[in-house]
Amino acid sequence: MGAGHAHKLYRHGHSPVHDLPPHCKLAAVLGFVVVVVSTPREAVWAFALYGVLLAGVAAVARIPAGFLLKRLVIEVPFVAFALLMPFVVPGEQTELLGVSVSVPGLWGAWNVLAKGTLGVAASVLLASTTELRSLLLGLQRLRLPPLLVQIASFMIRYGDVITDELRRMSVARRSRGFEAGGVRHWGVLAKTAGALFIRSYERGERVHLAMVSRGYTGTMPVIDEVTASRTQWAHAAALPVLALAVCLLGWTV
Question: Which residues cross the membrane (predicted)?
């Protein structure tokens, strides 16, 4: 099972983080995110320490800051949502830069921004140091339902195929003089989306029939068995354990 190619988020390297088994890294990131979400939003200093922990992991993995920052752009919609909260959440009002804003809204915006950014950063670090194929093997090792692993595998494998199909359809439209320029062209774009869905469905049917004809019975063979030593588990657990210590301190201080 596997994607057959490296994804754009992955950065090839031979650091200690790269060398950790994928299921160890998945468990570590999940534990870290759970701890971050459980931290009281009023403990601002705790989120700063979480950022330091992630920066330390990035340094060990030799992932440049610019590489990570570019990929954090994915959370822009959440940032926009958070920036609206001080103006729409009811409650006590205060002045900020000459503008009246809601105190509960400010805390809510901070909560979303801090926890969301740390979660996305941890995920980006995971993707930057782990190949897609290894991630799938890690999920399988963690006993994720096999059907979900297979669905994820097919999504990764055929995502580029569907994207290329959409690109060819776009080229065909432009070669016939079509340029989307307003609401009046939405009908054409909607038909394109419908055609892409039908083509994707038909391709999926053909792939399924080809697999069945080759002996597919609903389960994928395990090509590689990934294992982890106690030392590797201990190294991976360092991030969530340190984060848990910060979280407990945040609840008691």
Answer: 43-60, 72-89, 109-127, 233-251
| CA distances for 117 relative to 8, 40, 72, 121, angstroms | 20, 16, 8, 6
Q: Measured between alpha carbons, how far is residue 56 from residues 14, 32, 64, 187, 225 in Å? A: 16, 14, 12, 50, 29
pLDDT digits (tens, 9 = 90+) for 19-36: 999 999 999 999 999 999
What's the pTM? 0.78
Other CB atoms within 10 Å distance of the CB of residue 140:
24
Q: What crossing angle do the helices spanning 22-38 and 103-129 adopt, rounded to 10°?
A: 170
Give which of 109, 2, 45, 81 is closest to 249, Cα–Cα. 45
**Could you give the CA distance from residue 210 to residue 23 in angstroms, rounded to a whole number?**
31
pLDDT in tens, 169-195: 888 888 887 777 777 777 877 888 888
Q: Number of helices and strands (H, E) in the chain?
A: 10, 2
Q: What distance in Å separates the CA atoms of residue 5 and residue 2, rounded to the nearest whole number? A: 8
